[in-house]
Amino acid sequence: MNKIDVMSQIEEELTWRIDEFYFFKNQLSKIEKESDRDRYRKSLVVMLYSYYEGFCKSGFKVYVNAINSEKLPRSEVNIFIRTVSLNDIFLEYGNESQKDIRFKKQLLEDKKLHKYSRQITFLEQFSIFLNEIVNIPDEVVDTESNLNPVVLKKILYRLGFPFENIELLENTINKLLNYRNGIAHGSHKIGINEQAYKELEEDVINLMQSVRKIIIDAIQYDLFLKEKE
Q1: Who contacts 130 (Cβ-Cβ below 8 Å, separation ≥6)?
Q2: Is 41:200 a contact under the CB 8 Å cutoff?
Q3: Long-range contacts of 221-228, Cβ-Cβ distance < 8 Å, separation of 24 or more
């Protein structure tokens, strides 16, 4: 893996969004009436959420694609990456419609027996699965159209990131979502005052920087790999 190239991609995903955001924010200086500036800040809040969700999704995808491109066997990656790359196999072996042909005549509806049979087959094939190449599916970074703290934690957990640390960022995410939803539902008709907006913007930019650091650290220190014994 060309770490510098991958980390640069992540930096770029954040940089262009922040630069573009500040371009729109700078238009505030051209608005004379404070009441109009309050109304304009509503659009900035909506953009803040869009850039936050967009960066997280893009940053995680860069990380996933970088791991996939390494063509690593599952035996060499950490337990989280290994597990998420086995998702399709878990679904296959958890499929109750799959029956052991040896018991189809007399014990066709014995769910426990057929489940046990699938588990046996899974363990028999496990060494093969471990040597197969890691391919993390795109669904792992699904932001579910609402990147709230729970959804972000799920993504972080699946990819083996320290999701416990996100507790410190929950207030920021919830505040951003509350503002965005309030704007959509009409509860901020008169707009958002300068101080409230300033605090929100600072917190959201810091939030994105925190996510950036989590991903960058994982690449820089090979945290996706299995720890050496």
Answers
A1: 73, 74, 75, 82
A2: no
A3: 223/78, 223/160, 224/67, 224/77, 224/78, 224/81, 224/160, 225/72, 225/76, 225/77, 225/78, 226/75, 226/76, 226/77, 226/78, 226/79, 226/82, 227/78
Determine the Cα–Cα distance for residues 200 and 48; give it in Å rounded to an integer: 9
**Cα–Cα dist 136/64, whole Å:** 6
Q: What is the CA radius of gyration of the chain?
A: 23
Average pLDDT over all residues of the chain: 88
- Give φ, ψ of 98 to 5 degrees: -80, 120
Instruction: Give me the half-sphere count of Cα atoms (radius 13 Å) on the Cβ side of residue 49.
Output: 23
The alpha helices in 159-193, defined as continuous H runs, are 170-185
Burial of 210 (0-12, 13-18, 19+ CB in 10 A): middle
Q: How far apart are CA 58 and CA 51, in angstroms?
A: 10
Tell me which residue has tokens 């954040």: 14
Predicted confidence (pLDDT) at residue 99 exceeds the cutoff of 70: no
**Secondary structure of the chain: what % helix, strand, coil (to 5)?**
75, 0, 25
Q: pLDDT band at 110, cuts 50/70/90?
A: low
Non-local (6+) Cβ contacts of 24 within 8 A are: 43, 44, 47
pTM of this structure: 0.87
Percent of the chain with pLDDT over 90: 68
- Provide mean pLDDT across the span 217-229: 90
The pLDDT score that the predictor gives to residue 104 is: 60
